[in-house]
Amino acid sequence: MSNFSSLNRRKFLATAGAATGAVFLKGCLGNPPGSVPNAQSEASVPLVNVAVGDAPETTVVKLGYIPIVESAPLIIAKEKGFFNKYGMTGAEVSKQANWGAARDNVEIGAAAGGIDGGQWQMPMPHLISEGVITKGNRKVPMYVLAQLNTQGNGIAIAQKHAGKGIGLDVSGAADYIRGLKAAGTPFKAAYTFPKVNQDFWIRYWLAAGGINPDTDVNLLAVPAAQTVANMKTGTMDAFSTGDPWPYRIVGDGIGFVAALTSQIWPDHPEEYLAMRSDWVDKHPKATQAVLKAVMEAQQWCDDPANREELSQILAGRNYFNITAKILSEPYSGKYDLGDSKPQVNDVKESTLYWKDDRGSVSYPYKSHDLWFLTESVRWDFLPVSTLANAQTIIDKVNREDLWKEAAKSLGIAAADIPTSTSRGVEKFFDGVEFDPSKPEDYLKNLKIKKVKI
Ligand code: CA
Q: Tell me: the pLDDT tens digits for 375-400?
């Protein structure tokens, strides 16, 4: 981080030093969230890192977010001035009521009152691009630009199921959970949007324990806030979602955490920055500016020295509107899982934004897009024929080339810029492996699945 800052500083000094090289745009720093940026502001603000010729085609962009830790790089890019730094003085981050609303708003586009892009579960950008989850199956092409974060999600279980052996390996509780269905009170588990990350995490975890998510339990989509309320009243048995929700469940004595996603699949792909392709194609320089701001924000978010401030900013009334303490413990890797499980106390188990043990978090590996599409085939969300077309779909949507361009421009060390679009073989907690060069083998080897392969 310090090298990074000093590099920008040197760049700035070099730019400012060449008198005519300094670029001045009208705008104002530090707009309160939700305010309308005033393009007519009289204050001329020297942009720290916009070289001549790099000025973005527009200073305005509207990015949607959901108030969970995944959104931090977008909020920090706004709050710490990184969008301004790269010339996006009119960047706006816009809280979305739920994932369905985010999808609807990106279909509309910011010009018509929606959003240009923002934070997504996977493979939402692919499903929107292909018209699978849009109104009238209209194709709204999108580009994946960066991964926002890894880990930081969990599977929460209602307190009434404590002491039944429901943990990371749920096989010991499989008979108990199946028995609930036989007794006419099926185990009800929720995610916040179907056929994306949280649905996948809960399905993977159940199936690894020998529980068929399609026949042994009831899975359903419920808005995050409602899952907590339903769990309180005893009508919901489990849910899968991002921090700080699982943690709150334990804090409020409503339930416990069976597994953190960092335990299910260490350093797993989580949520992404993706935007409408038409916006990106029309605004290549502004896209680079957005990417650079988000990437710098990701580095800021991962600096342990910033995590307390990060908790304070996100907790604010304009963003998550919660007590900062609820965020600080998960952010330091301290998880009290409840149900007499050993405490987790390792920052590497927390959500990470820039780097993890496998290398870059921010770089959008195509091999991860492929896992999401393969898992969609596993549960029959997408037809088997998707596998044959997967590379074409991914090549259209995944713009890792734009990420690399931004990384080079930011002066990111070559060692931190992946050279392959595949991260290689992925390993899950139950010993299963996903080799991106053989997705069919992964599907064939899985014991519980819906697809016939
Ligand atoms: Ca998530």
A: 999 999 999 999 999 999 999 999 99
CA distance 46 to 49: 9
* Dist. CA 39 → ligand 1 center (Å): 35
Q: pLDDT tens across 85-111, in order?
A: 999 999 999 999 999 999 999 999 999
How far is CA 172 from each of CA 22, 159, 176, 209, 448, rounded to the nearest angstrom? Answer: 65, 18, 8, 8, 17
CA dist 162 and 340 (Å) reads: 9
How much distance in Å is there from the Cα of 221 to the middle of ligand 1? 14
Per the document, the length of the chain is: 453
CA–CA separation, 251 and 241 (whole Å) = 16
Long-range contacts of 431-435 (CB under 8 A, 24+ apart): 432/208, 434/371, 434/374
DSSP β-ladder status, 218-221 and 188-191: parallel
Half-sphere exposure of 2 (CA within 13 A, CB side): 2
Gap from CA of 152 to ligand 1 centroid (Å): 7
Mean pLDDT across 22-46: 37
**Nearest to residue 319, comparing CAs of 70, 84, 13?**
70
Q: How far apart are CA 19 and CA 416, in angstroms?
A: 33
For ligand 1, the distance from its centroid to the CA atom of residue 338, given in whole angstroms, is 21
Q: What are phi and psi of 65, to 5 degrees?
A: -145, 160
Long-range contacts of 251-255, Cβ-Cβ distance < 8 Å, separation of 24 or more = 251/326, 251/336, 252/228, 253/159, 254/158, 254/159, 254/228, 255/156, 255/157, 255/158, 255/159, 255/161, 255/231, 255/338
Cross-strand bridge partners of residue 241: 154
How far, in Å, from the CA of 122 to the mean position of ligand 1?
9
Confirm if 223 and 192 have CB atoms less than 8 A apart: yes
Q: What is the pTM of this model?
A: 0.89
Instruction: Kindly list the distances between the CA atom of residue 290 and the CA atoms of 58, 75, 285, in Å, as whole numbers in the listed order.
Output: 11, 12, 9
- Of 151, 392, 134, 116, give the one whose Cα is nearest residue 267: 151
Question: Taken in order 269, 272, 277, 281, is the CA torsion positive or negative?
Answer: negative
Of the candidates 310, 407, 405, which has an alpha carbon nearest to the alpha carbon of residue 359? Answer: 407
Whole-angstrom distance, CA of residue 320 vs CA of residue 297 = 18
Q: What are the structural domains of the chain?
A: 2-151+268-332+351-430 (3.40.190.10), 153-264 (3.40.190.10)
